[in-house]
């Protein structure tokens, strides 16, 4: 029988547990997830259901291989959070094999091969994302055009065809659309000025959908901060660094560089700032370390978005800064009382 | 500019004002602070167990033998001051009631490893009577006495820090004249959940506590160098905001004293506000340097119960033989505070306890599990907490959430310390200021992975200490060996030198004699030769004359 430990402290904070923290992260993801459901319909459902299913299976098999207590570790919800984040980051209607490969990289390689819960130096969801992004660029950039009440426009059977990788290319071409970030990048790479004015951008259908999604994730993230699951350091420093770097170039040449607002509300900005960069295991733990870590992510995101070859940059920015965490932690130790 | 920088540091969470703490939702104090204090007196036949060592420091020397009859307040063991320094960390032990010493034997004491230690076993006769020399002479006119005399009285009364540290109070009051103490802090914070003995003491005995504080201020004053500028001294009584009755009682007792040096200060209710370093920081904004003492910053800190004990020892001549103890928890039939003679068994205070209950001496954050109800109440016992044993959630791996670091009142990185302790990387643990950990338990309280963090720190500290001891011993042995070796070599060298010298001396002596002998012989030979020649000449002359 497990009894109260014979050593102090005997008191524990009530309702403070790993699975409790993870569940709150999942609750905070719900607003953003619902808005994505509105715009991408079945594609988000299939991503989430299959992604989480694969992740749980992989987690269970890895726990079995490592001879760990299944009941204890499957209940910590950490793998559900990883899979959820990754499923939202991948394009809607992702084919099953893409999801599986991404999950293998996230759960098996990034998490369990490094020692499981709490031991992974890199953010598992971002490792999974980066692995499939560099391997399958076509599938990873095939974002379906966001449509209000998307369930009505793309049927379940068509969704299943897409997921089963049997949907023909013509239909894909009909339903996909370049994301705002892609549009900007294509225009700039071909030497044009920004294709749309600032106002046009913000009001275009694609622009509006990403803005709504980002605002919903922002709301969920603020709730997480209010619940003290995350501290303000990482989201604020990340968004501030991104805003500042975007502002410098936008003020210098607004014809070629989109505004800070565009960057804040495009792609996975809010999802990363509040949910991905804040993963405690792979982030810095000291106050100053957190600020530097997050500012680095914001800066690298801007650099890669603006001059890199990839549609969005958070996965690489996060992984790069993950590498710096041990150093940041070592050099930003807070002052100890009396020192 | 500096202000802005400090503000920024504070905002980020790097500045001292943001040292962590926890605020448990329920302090469970109402369970035991509503009832009047019950005064327990030993009845005839009760066995009192008095461990010789109830304080931090050296064991006192026994004055009594089995079979002796002792009066209440009689000294059972005295501080051995003869052969050690003046400030020896030793206080005497007194009989808490009258009766017969039945035996002196090893008995279980309150110790994390459940060790036994030497105890005087006193069988009460139920009379509870002071003898002729039971009470020390009252020093009501203490203001005319010097500090050494008063400190001697405080030592003789066996007074130690009653907040739990049980450090001899007289030593704390002996300050370095080079660094005078300007702030006396009386600690009435009592921040741990459940414990209310100080709360109730402040309500009931506010005047005695204040009188004790005035005595301490006098002791500090009396040490002043008359030539130096006299410093202004103050005494801050820090009380947590969750004790309104204690605060008003202290303030009511303070008003008629009209002593501007004393001030009651309300500190926010948070754990561990009553930690010495934390309270000093809350009241003065100063930090005790690591490895240093509060006196280095001109501060000393005493518990309210210690202040009261000092008053009773000085003004009434009463040694420390009883104290307030909180009996609390779900497993206590009659929760409340009791005024207990030291040495009564914990079991005798509690009556019947549930069979699956856990006995804790102290509070739920830093208390010690008692493995037996036979363990006696000692000077350190502020609370007996009895709660049912509950199932402990299994520990998960650390997810580096940093909750522990946010709540650490010492500003440490508990997750890093845990990592290093687990990896037995003690050098790194020390570099991360392991020894600044006060083991308050905030980190383990908030840990979502339910890791018993403090156990890891205790383990690492103990390992480092034993390594240090082993190293010191090895170093000592090496030095002894080297010295021994050197001594042998020196002896050998000296012997050879001596021999050589002797030989040389003998030789030079010999050769000198021989030379002399040779010289003498030569001289003799020369003389002889010269004589012969003379004789020869003379004979030739004689020979020639006849022929002429």
Would you kindly provide a written description of the structure presented here, covering whatever features stand out?
The complex is a heterodimer of chains A (339) and B (548). Chain A has 339 residues and is an all-alpha fold. Chain A folds into two domains: 16-177, no CATH class; 179-339, no CATH class. Chain A contains 17 helices and no strands. In chain A, helix 1 packs antiparallel against helix 12 (205-226). The longest helix of chain A has 24 residues, at 42-65. Chain A is globular and about 65 Å long. Chain B has 548 residues and is an alpha/beta fold. Chain B folds into two domains: 20-388, Rossmann fold; 396-528, Fumarate Reductase Iron-sulfur Protein, Chain B, domain 2 (Orthogonal Bundle), CATH 1.10.1060. Chain B has 14 helices and 17 strands. In chain B, strands 1-14-13-17-15-16 form a six-stranded mixed sheet. The model of chain B has no long low-confidence stretch (mean pLDDT 88). At the A-B interface, helix 1 and helix 16 of A face helix 10, helix 13 and helix 14 of B.
Using DSSP, what is the number of strands of chain A?
0
How many helices of chain A in DSSP terms?
Answer: 17
**Helix amount of chain B:** 25-40%
Q: Which term fits the overall shape of chain B? A: elongated
Please give the share of residues in helix of chain A: 55-70%
Looking at the structure, what is the overall shape of chain A?
Answer: globular
Cα-atom Rg of chain B, whole angstroms? Answer: 37 Å
Largest interface: A-B, 46 and 67 residues
CATH superfamily of the largest domain in chain B: NADH-ubiquinone oxidoreductase 51kDa subunit
Amount of beta strand of chain A: under 5%
Number of strands of chain B: 17
Termini distance of chain B? 138 Å
* Biggest sheet features of chain B: 6 strands, mixed
Q: Please, how many helices of chain B? A: 14
Q: Indicate the CATH class of the largest domain in chain B.
A: Alpha Beta
Query: Roughly how many Å is the radius of gyration of chain A?
Result: 21 Å
Low-pLDDT runs of 5+ residues of chain A are none
CATH architecture of the largest domain in chain B: 3-Layer(aba) Sandwich
Instruction: Estimate the strand proportion of chain B.
Output: 15-25%
Structural class of chain A: mainly alpha
């Amino acid at each position: 029988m497990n009894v109260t430990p014979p050593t102090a402290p005997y008191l524990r904070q009530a309702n403070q547990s790993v699975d409790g923290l993870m569940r709150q992260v999942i609750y905070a993801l719900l607003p953003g997830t619902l808005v994505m459901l509105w715009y991408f319909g079945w594609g988000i459902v299939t991503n989430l259901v299959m992604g989480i299913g694969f992740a749980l299976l992989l987690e269970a098999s890895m726990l079995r291989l490592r001879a760990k207590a299944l009941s204890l570790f499957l209940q910590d919800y950490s793998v559900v959070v990883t899979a959820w984040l990754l499923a939202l980051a991948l394009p809607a209607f992702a084919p099953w094999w893409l999801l599986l490969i991404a999950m293998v990289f996230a759960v098996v390689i990034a998490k369990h091969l490094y020692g499981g819960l709490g031991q992974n130096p890199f953010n598992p969801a971002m490792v999974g994302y980066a692995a499939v992004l560099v391997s399958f660029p076509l599938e990873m950039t095939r974002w379906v055009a966001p449509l209000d009440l998307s369930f009505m426009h793309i049927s379940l059977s068509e969704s299943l065809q897409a997921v089963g990788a049997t949907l023909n290319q013509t239909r894909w071409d009909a339903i996909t659309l370049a994301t705002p970030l892609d549009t900007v990048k294509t225009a700039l790479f071909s030497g044009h000025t920004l294709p749309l004015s600032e106002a046009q951008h913000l009001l275009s259908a694609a622009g509006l959908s990403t803005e709504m999604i980002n605002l919903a994730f922002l709301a969920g993230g603020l709730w997480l901060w209010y619940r003290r699951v995350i501290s303000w350091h990482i989201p604020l420093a990340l968004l501030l660094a991104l805003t500042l770097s975007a502002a410098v170039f936008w003020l210098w040449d607004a014809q070629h560089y989109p505004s800070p607002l565009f960057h804040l509300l495009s792609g996975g900005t809010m999802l990363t700032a509040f949910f991905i960069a804040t993963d405690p295991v792979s982030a810095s733990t000291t106050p100053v370390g957190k600020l530097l870590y997050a500012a680095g992510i914001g800066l690298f995101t801007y650099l890669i978005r603006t001059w890199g070859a990839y549609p969005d940059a958070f996965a690489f920015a996060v992984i790069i800064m993950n590498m710096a965490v041990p150093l940041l932690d070592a050099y930003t130790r807070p002052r100890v009382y009396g020192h | 500019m500096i202000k802005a920088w400090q503000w920024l540091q504070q905002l980020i969470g790097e500045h001292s004002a943001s040292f962590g703490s926890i605020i448990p939702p329920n302090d469970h104090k109402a369970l035991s602070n509503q009832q009047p204090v019950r005064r327990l007196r030993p009845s005839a036949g009760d066995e009192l167990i008095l461990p010789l060592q109830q304080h931090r420091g050296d064991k006192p020397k026994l004055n009594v033998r089995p079979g002796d009859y002792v009066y209440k307040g009689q000294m059972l063991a005295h501080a051995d001051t003869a052969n050690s320094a003046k400030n020896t960390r030793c206080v005497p032990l007194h009989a808490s009631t009258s009766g017969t010493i039945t035996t002196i034997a090893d008995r279980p004491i309150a110790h994390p490893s459940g060790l036994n230690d030497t105890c005087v076993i006193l069988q009460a006769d139920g009379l509870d009577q002071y003898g002729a020399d039971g009470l020390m002479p009252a020093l009501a006119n203490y203001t005319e006495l010097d500090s050494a005399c008063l400190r001697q009285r405080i030592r003789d009364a066996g007074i130690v820090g009653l907040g739990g540290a049980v450090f001899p109070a007289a030593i704390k009051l002996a300050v370095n004249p080079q660094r005078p103490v300007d702030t006396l802090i009386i600690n009435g914070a009592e921040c741990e959940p459940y414990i209310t003995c100080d709360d109730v003491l402040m309500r009931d005995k506010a005047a005695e506590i204040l009188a004790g504080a005035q005595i301490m201020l006098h002791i500090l004053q009396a040490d002043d160098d008359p030539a130096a500028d006299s410093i202004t001294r103050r005494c801050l009584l820090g009380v947590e905001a969750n004790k309104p009755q204690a605060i008003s009682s202290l303030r009511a007792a303070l008003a008629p004293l009209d002593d501007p040096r004393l001030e009651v200060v309300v500190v926010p209710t948070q754990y561990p506000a009553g930690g010495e370093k934390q309270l000093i920081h809350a009241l003065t904004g100063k930090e005790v340097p690591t490895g240093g003492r509060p006196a280095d910053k001109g501060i000393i800190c005493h518990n309210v119960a210690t202040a009261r004990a000092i008053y009773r020892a000085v003004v009434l001549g009463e040694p420390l033989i009883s104290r307030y103890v909180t009996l609390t928890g779900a497993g206590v039939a009659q929760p409340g505070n009791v005024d207990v003679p030291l040495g009564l068994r914990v079991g005798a205070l509690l009556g019947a306890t549930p069979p699956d209950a856990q006995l804790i001496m102290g509070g739920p954050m830093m208390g010690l599990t008692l493995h037996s109800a036979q363990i006696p109440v000692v000077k350190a016992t502020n609370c007996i907490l009895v709660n049912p044993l509950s199932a402990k959630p299994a520990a998960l791996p650390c997810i580096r959430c940093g909750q522990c670091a946010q709540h650490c009142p010492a500003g440490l990185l508990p997750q890093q310390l845990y990592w290093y302790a687990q990896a037995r990387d003690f050098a790194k643990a020390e570099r991360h200021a392991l020894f600044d950990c006060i083991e308050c338990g905030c980190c383990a309280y908030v840990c979502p992975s339910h890791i018993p963090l403090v156990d890891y720190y205790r383990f690492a500290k103990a390992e480092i200490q034993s390594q240090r001891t082993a190293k010191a011993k090895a170093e000592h042995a090496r030095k002894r060996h080297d010295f021994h070796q050197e001594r042998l070599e020196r002896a050998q060298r000296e012997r050879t030198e001596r021999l050589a010298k002797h030989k040389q001396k003998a030789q030079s002596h010999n050769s000198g004699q021989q030379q002399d002998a040779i010289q003498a012989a030569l001289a003799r030979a020369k003389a002889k030769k010269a004589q012969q020649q003379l004789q020869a000449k003379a004979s030739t002359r004689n020979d020639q004359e006849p022929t002429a």
